[in-house]
Amino acid sequence: MTSPSYGLEGRAAVVTGATRGIGRAVAQALASAGALVCVTARDADEVRRTALELGGIGLAGSVADPGHHRRLTELALGEFGRLDVLVNNAATNQPYGPLMDAAPEAWREAFTVNVEAPLRLVQCAWRSWMSEHGGTVINVCTEGAGHVGPNVGAYGTSKAALLHLTGQLAGELGPRVRVNSVSPGLVRTEMARFMWEPGELDIAAGLPLGRIGEPEDVARAVLWLASDAAEWVTGADLVVDGGTRVRAAHIPAS
Ligand SMILES: NC(=O)c1ccc[n+]([C@@H]2O[C@H](COP(=O)([O-])OP(=O)(O)OC[C@H]3O[C@@H](n4cnc5c(N)ncnc54)[C@H](OP(=O)(O)O)[C@@H]3O)[C@@H](O)[C@H]2O)c1
């Protein structure tokens, strides 16, 4: 049996993109389970507010800034003396539109934020703590990484790369470090507002589980993967999508 805290009591976690949406819910869930939480995002006021609310610490900056990765892991290690959990959640869904219109800098930025930053952060965590003491990494991907869609070519391609990176790292870093991903379907956050706001009821009616996701739905999955309850799970992708992938078989109630 695992304890209600899933063994996360006193462990230290870094969560990127943690001031709102899914990252905020993940940081909250980890803090509620007794973990020491270090949050980051670009807006300094929001980072301060979130850290205060969660009783944790924070550092403002972009995950696109290579220096930020080192400063972030150093802060967590300096303040907590350990770094057990890394949640790579920050992402961009830009450039949005047909790939033939994607500017090179915008394409590179998508890969810098969505793929390179998670790798660099894992390297920092591995070199400074996890290679010796162990730990766990959770990358937030997307259900959409498994298929193509209009206007999301850069986002989908970079998230598919993150999914691949998750498996590669899981193979390379075991047994000390477990690396998994969570792939959400449509979740009620700012990033996805343009998708759910115009037709939420119709979208929900088409899903086997009858509603769009809430950030807490995803946070519970991340918490489980971070915990000792998932001690024999690595290289896995946990799809949390309300049945989006199987909706073709769904017969809506009349
Ligand atoms: N919502 C969905 O339907 C959905 C579906 C599938 C996957 N996801 C994935 O879930 C994750 C979280 O998305 P969300 O919907 O919760 O987004 P959100 O509500 O827009 O929150 C994004 C968070 O990331 C921070 N952030 C953005 N760019 C950053 C950067 N370059 N460096 C550091 N922090 C940055 C934001 O704060 P600042 O702006 O202050 O930096 C904010 O805290 C993403 O990986 C996304 O791809 C979301």
From TrEMBL:
<dbReference type="GO" id="GO:0016491">
    <property type="term" value="F:oxidoreductase activity"/>
</dbReference>
<protein>
    <submittedName>
        <fullName>3-oxoacyl-ACP reductase</fullName>
    </submittedName>
</protein>
<dbReference type="InterPro" id="IPR002347">
    <property type="entry name" value="SDR_fam"/>
</dbReference>
<comment type="similarity">
    <text>Belongs to the short-chain dehydrogenases/reductases (SDR) family.</text>
</comment>
<keyword id="KW-0560">Oxidoreductase</keyword>
<dbReference type="InterPro" id="IPR036291">
    <property type="entry name" value="NAD(P)-bd_dom_sf"/>
</dbReference>
<dbReference type="Pfam" id="PF13561">
    <property type="entry name" value="adh_short_C2"/>
</dbReference>
